Structure prediction request, 835 residues.
Amino acid sequence: MGAIASSVPSGGVALDLKNVRRVFDDLVVIESLDLRVEAGEFLAILGPSGCGKSTLLRMIARLAEPDAGRITFHPDTERFQTAFVFQDAHLLPWRTVLDNAALPLELMGIEREQRYRRAHASLRQVSLSEAEGRYPAQLSGGMKMRVSLARALVTAPRLLLLDEPFAALDEITRFRLDNQLRELWRQRAMTVVFVTHSISEAAFLANRAIVLSRRGGRIKLDRRLELPSERTDDLRANPRLGREMKILLDAMEEE
Amino acid sequence: MHALKPLTGVRGSEQSRGRKGPLLAAIPALVPFVVITSALELAVRGGLVRAYLVPAPSSVFRAMVESRGELMRAMLTTSASALLGFFLSTVAGIGIAVFLSSSRAIQRAFYPYAVFFQTVPLIAIAPLLVIWFGYGTRTVVASAFVVSIFPVIANTLTGILSTDPALRDLFRLYGASTLVTLFKLRFPAALPQILTGLRVASGLAVIGAIVGEFIGGQGLGSVVDIARTQQRVDKVFAAVLLASVLGLALFGLINLISYVTLRRWHASEQA
Amino acid sequence: MNRRNFLLGSAALLTACGKSSQKIRLALNWKPEPEFGPFYAAPYRKYGLDVEILPGGAGTPTIQMVGAGSAEFGIVSADELVVARSRGNDVAALFAVFQNNPQGIMVHASRKLTSIGDIFRHPGTVAMQRGLSYARLLEKMYGFDKVKIVPSPNGDVSAFLHDKNFAQQCFITSEPLIANRQGADVQVFPISDIGFNPYTDVMATSGELLRSKPEMVKPMVAAVREGLRIYLDDPKPTNVHMQQLNPTMPLDLFTETSEVQKPLIETEETRRDGLGVMTKERWETLIKQLKDLGDVEKAPAAEECFRSL
Prediction:
């Protein structure tokens, strides 16, 4: 299963954000942020709506430039080694599931045979093999998100960015996908940055969580979560999870 | 390459209904036609409506049969011109829209001139068309082109500019060039909107061709013009009816194309 | 004047006023131009008539309008009236402004053509309304295989000016003058040369109106007859008025045209029998020609086509 990532050395990529600042018109979304993300970390970014977490993610993805400060990557990744999962699946409706999953490779210029092989494997990872020939219009919300995940993983990215990807799904599906995401992270060597406003999701998935302030993008809390590395559904009933959640909640509520 | 798995559940029942569909589906459209023609026939025969103003459907039919050779030839001529004009306005219209979509500055500079195509009264520029293109097919095609191009430009532009920004981000993420993004993302995404524009343009192309024929002389437009001068209202209506059939056929063609290209993925072609 | 006469006179005047309150619509088949001078010059009020003149343009269906009742009177040509009658449209002619048909075909003088038939014996383009009776007569007489027939540009002469081998249907009082002013050397062949000479610029009305309101029709004809006299004697004031309604035509062209059209209007017949007069013989000739051409199936009787009022 790790064979798909054959082109990627282990360890993912580390991020270094220094004095990062972002302004929209007159509003200072992020004042001056310093953050170091270790290679291979699963980082959750928490905060209320409008706190700048999505903006921060887009800058890490290099879809937007900071107005001041720098973001450096170690090792310096090429573009396609960063993958992004949006809040909605955003599949191309005129393509099949397989063609959607293969899209990044197609844009990179990888030839047909290879990209279909890798897309096929990627879809198998998210248990969607039988749906390969279907069109997005025929899929449920959860299935579409899984295709989006498979698409993100098809390039064997070193850095995986997710922006509230499961927010629109029902709880059971969300739990399932949480499990699947965590499992995929464990199998591959990649850094994951996961933006969410769900405290329980952040606590369940991440090994480190930061909480951003309501305005200005200030880091109110930066915590390494004291939870086992194996996260199963049992953990959801575990008081240790509740404790971590309380800590995160307190941080979010304090102003 | 990957065969579509048999569709079950939601879509199954619609599939079987489709088999006897086309014939049954045509019936509601024919009912008003039958009712109106019968009523008109009775009205003319009864003297309620004067035959030299509105011809009895039976006399229109007779005129069609009598002049079938002439009308068929005229219809073929007009069809060819309308189709060519429509094809040209499709290609040019999409091309111009792609050009306009490249930057806001270009849009602001050139879009107002595209609107010119929408508003210019054909009769006013008719003498110019004749001087540039001469009497005959070229003027007719030019006329069909001028009249039908604007909806193609407007709808295609809207479609291209309405691409989902998240998808554009996705393409940027993987380093896709502007051209690649245009062909693999913006164009297919714009297709439903483009087809809407083509639907409107198809009818206009037929109208443009007929008006062009008033000016340039041939086809159904010429038949209408000559019959009108001869006070042959029945023949006028016969020609007009055939022109409508032509418009319908073109419209149906676009619908067919829309069905084939969109049915798997766009809400407009799905139950 | 004794009391009785006074009362009768007042009554007559009052009824005349009552009549004048009904709006009478006269539909023209072209824009206001010298051919319609008599209609704009006519002293309708004097005859107790309240007339509204409706200018027309290309393709105005005056004969259908009269038949359908959307105009009480309309300007038509005799040949289209015959065809209309044969199709069941009960209309009749009352007054013919043009005794002779002003239609013609104009060519460039440089071609040195000698007769109307010549036009069709040499290659070139001829712009003509193909549905017109005289067009079919020309086809019958000379054949169209050497020339290219294209639709008539309806008064616009740009195509004519552009091409030396271009011939165009015209009113000899109109397009040739315009083309001349733009520098062309024009030669005109009247259609009457081939013996086709329907009355033109004819005021017609519906049989319905003739039967139900003869008291409206007779004064109308009298007013128009007087208007024509006024216009022939002094077209200037009427031309000024019409030019305001049709500003695209310059006033001096109005003056020139009203002179050029005089020989078509005042002829031996009119000096003898009055302006606008029509004869049964000429109608019969026309009806026969149209029947031979196949433009009418059932030929109407000449007496039904016109009235002498």
About this structure: Chains C and A do not touch (no CB pair under 8 Å).
